[in-house]
Amino acid sequence: MRILAISCLVLLSFSAWTDTVKIGYIDTQKVINNLPQYQQSVGQISEEFEPKKLELLSLFKHIELLRAKVNAINNTEKKENLQIELSKLTLLEESFKKETEYWQETMNTKKIELLQKIELLINNTINDLAISESYDLILYENAAFVSDEVNITNKVIQRILNNSL
Fold first, then answer.
1. Using CA of residue 151, residue 29, residue 41, residue 132, what is the dihedral sign?
2. pLDDT per residue as tens digits for the range 118-136
3. Nearest alpha-carbon partner for 107 in 54, 52, 49
4. What's the Rg (C-alpha) of the chain?
5. Helix, strand or coil for residue 155?
6. Residue 145, Ramachandran bin (φ over 0: left; ψ between -120 and 50: alpha; else beta)
7. Residue 105 has pLDDT above 70, yes or no
8. pLDDT in the model for residue 79
9. Which secondary structure element, helix H or strand E, spans residue 6, and what is its range?
């Protein structure tokens, strides 16, 4: 009997507690993808690296043409004369590899810096929203299920957009 009474008391207190707790959920990927700041910055990064990308593609095509030229020669004497071409090809390939790796690392670094700035913006907006609308708990990432009543992703996006204008 005591256990039943305690269980009822726990259920009643839990029920009362849940009525006063305000919980929200945020789909951070959706927030990031909907931010004009993110879209503009990704566009700027792409524009910034477009000339280098074209240069590397041109270098790659040149390497492929040299390789095809060397492979097409059947005459041994001519192949010996093409040792210079082969050494150029090797140097070009090494240069292409180094430049491509550097270009990719630089681009990734810029994207990481961008995401860090956006993460700070999102976290500040979530904190402001949580305080202004009296949320007790806000969750994000890896939620198994989230009802529409607690999903505040669109509120966060809207608040960021309103503060950006």
1. positive
2. 889 888 988 888 888 888 8
3. 49
4. 29
5. helix
6. beta
7. yes
8. 64
9. helix 2-20
Cβ-Cβ contacts under 8 Å for 152 (sequence gap 6 or more): 24, 25, 26, 129, 135, 138
Asked whether the CA dihedral 123, 42, 59, 106 is positive or negative, the reply is: negative
pTM exceeds 0.70 for this model = no
pLDDT for res 1: 46
Question: What is the token pair recorded at 69?
Answer: 């030229």
The residue type found at 62 is H
Q: Which helix (H) or strand (E) holds 140?
A: strand 137-140
Q: What six digits make up the tokens of 90?
A: 């090797």
DSSP assignment of 25-54: EE-HHHHHHH-HHHHHHHHHHHHHHHHHHH
Report the mean per-residue pLDDT for the chain.
Answer: 77
